[in-house]
Structures are given as C-alpha cells and as structure tokens.
Write a structure and sequence with these properties.
Methane Monooxygenase Hydroxylase, Chain G, domain 1; 3 domains; 3-stranded mixed beta sheet
C-alpha cells in the first residue's frame, strides 16, 4: 500500500486535468491555423464544453480533502511543490461558477474568430461588440475572484498569470519606463539618423524560402522538430504541449524580418515548453511558471540573442544563400543596422 495515498490521488487527478488542457490547446491552434470560417460556432461550443469539463475536474470536491491530507504525508520537494500548485489552481477554479466559465470561453472564441476576419479589412467596428463582451466576462471573473480571494479584482486576475504578483509591485516599474523611454527613444532616433540607415535587401522574398530560413534557425536554436512544428496564423503564437509544441508566424513577401523575428520569438517560448521537466509536464508543478517568465524566454531569444552581432554574423551567409541577389545588404554590418533599427509604431509587435 502506498505511503502517500492522498498525494497519489491528487497526482492522478491533476494529470487528467493537464491532458485535457493540452487537448484544448490543439483545438485553439487548429482554430487559428486551419479551421474554416464556417466552423467557428461549432468550435466555440466544443471549446466551451471541454472548458466546463476541465472546470468540473479542477473543482472536484475531493480535491480539498486530498490537499489537506497530502500536506501531512512524507513527500519529497517536487511533490510538496506540486501540492502547493494544485492548491493554487484549485483556489482559482473554485472561485468561478461553471456557467461563467462556459460564457467566457464562448465570448473569447467568437471574438478571436471575428478578429481574424476583420483584421485584414482594418474593421474594428466589426470586432468592438465582441471585444466588449470579452471585457465584460473578464471583469465578472475578476470581481468574483477578488471577493473570494480577498484581492483587488485586477490583482485577482493578475495572480492567474503571474502568481503572487500585485499591481502595487508592477505599477512603479511601468512608471519608471514611462518616465525614461520617451526621452531615451528620442536620443536613439537622433543617433540613428546621424549614423545612417542600413540598406534593406530588395525583395520579393518568397514565402517558401522564408519558411525554410525560419525552420533552419529554429534548429540552430535547439528546437526539436520531432516534437513541434511551424505554421501560419494572423498573429504569431506558441501553443500545444511540451511534447508537441506548435509555433506560428506570418509572412510578407516584401519584408522577411517580420516573419523571421516572429519565428525566433516564438522559438524562445517553444524552447521553454520543450525544456519543462519531463516527468512533471502534466502536473501543476511542471507547468510554465508564469506569463512573465514565458515572455522573458521569448524576448531573451528574440531581442538579446538573435539581435546580437554574433547571431547576425552567423545569419548573414545563411540569408544570402537563401535569398540571393546583391550581396551588399547581406553583409553583417549592414544586417546589424537593419536588425537594430528603431522605429515608433502603434502596432505592439512591430514597434521598437
């Protein structure tokens, strides 16, 4: 007989939760990359049904008893940490009514699908009512969680993405950036104007070639293509599970940098996913720690490693070989100017 029966029950139960969450990830991926427009309503219903099932598993009344008894069992460090994370997820899940979980999932799904069709037309009016519904459901979740968890509504939402973080800690960081960045950006733009801009290579850059380049550098960075893939979506993202990580990018034939940096950014996310502890991937303790940690890994790869002179020198002959044409723009010094070019913009993923 096991010496840790309560922990064993908890472990087995949350493995089912983890597997269901991964299945949902692949449905979301398919919705963003493969699903025809006509499948949107059915997909929203599928997602809502599975999210409700996940919620039912995550709020099983036995969980509280398992946690209480497991805390008194002889557990190792990983197991104790897993009990702590099970408790945190259970607290968040039990705060939200099942009907609200279903309504929020349907609202998010509908808004995402409308956005994908409206974005090429720049038709915000088409998205606005759906986005209003998304905000309404999010505020409802925040209010309920805040009351039950004894937190400010925003902090209650924030805790789900960044465990333990509070607005009072984060606001000063953004205040510092708001005070520093405008003037610093002016200095950078002035220095950039004095030194001159790099020469951008002349396209077009065939999409098939851009994809080959992206796959090449994914491999260079350590992405395991036996456990993941690269596809196209309206907005780059990383999804799936640690054993099968799905990343996406988007292509323009007149600009290879946008797609490549999207690939490199998402590869940073994917490497974090593929590096999660093998034996704990379906358990709460084996999840990505937080949205902030996840984004730190993608930005470390995109902005630090892959905009460095060392990476540019590595990339230069690869890009020249794949895209050809005048060799001058592919010279490392010129590429470095292009890759470190700063420009203000209203689109978050394109602005510097």
């Amino acid at each position: 007989m096991s010496a840790t029966p309560a922990y064993d029950a908890l472990h087995q139960h949350f493995a089912r939760v983890g597997h269901l969450e991964e299945a949902l990830e692949y449905l979301y991926w398919d919705m963003a990359t493969q699903m025809p427009e006509g499948g949107a309503q059915a997909r929203g219903e599928q997602l809502a049904t599975l999210k409700v099932l996940e919620h039912q598993l995550s709020t099983d009344p036995r969980i509280g008893d398992w946690i209480a008894r497991a805390e008194g069992e002889d557990l190792d460090g990983w197991q104790r940490a897993n009990v702590r994370e099970c408790h945190r997820l259970w607290t968040h899940a039990t705060a939200v009514p099942e009907a609200l979980v279903e309504a929020q999932t349907k609202a998010n799904s509908a808004c995402g699908q409308i956005w994908r069709t409206a974005r090429p037309k720049n038709d915000f009016k088409a998205v606005a009512p759906y986005l209003t519904e998304v905000f309404a459901r999010a505020r409802e979740v925040a209010q309920i969680k805040g009351e039950i968890m004894g937190l400010d509504p925003y902090d209650a939402l924030l805790d789900g993405f960044e465990p333990g973080a509070r607005r009072a800690q984060i606001a000063p960081l953004f205040d510092d950036l708001a005070a520093f960045l405008p003037g610093f950006t002016d200095q950078v733009l002035d220095a950039q104007a004095r030194r001159g801009h790099g020469v951008f290579p002349t396209g077009p850059f065939p999409i098939a070639t851009q994809r080959d380049v992206g796959l090449h550098f994914m491999g260079v960075l350590g992405f395991d293509l036996n456990h993941g893939r690269l596809d196209v979506s309206a907005h780059p993202f990383c999804g799936g599970g640690a054993a099968d990580v799905r990343i996406t990018t988007r292509y323009r034939e007149d600009d290879f940098i946008q797609s490549l940096m999207g690939v490199l950014h998402e590869t940073g996310h994917a490497l974090y996913e593929q590096g999660r502890p093998l034996g704990w991937r379906a358990q709460p303790v084996g999840r990505a720690r937080s949205a902030g940690v996840h984004e730190s890994q993608s930005l470390l790869m995109e902005m630090q490693a892959c905009r460095s002179r060392e990476f540019i020198e590595l990339a230069s002959p690869v890009l020249a070989r794949h895209f050809g044409g005048d060799p001058t723009p592919w010279a490392p010094d010129n590429l470095y100017r292009i890759y470190t070019h700063v420009e203000r913009g209203l689109i978050r993923v394109d602005a510097d």
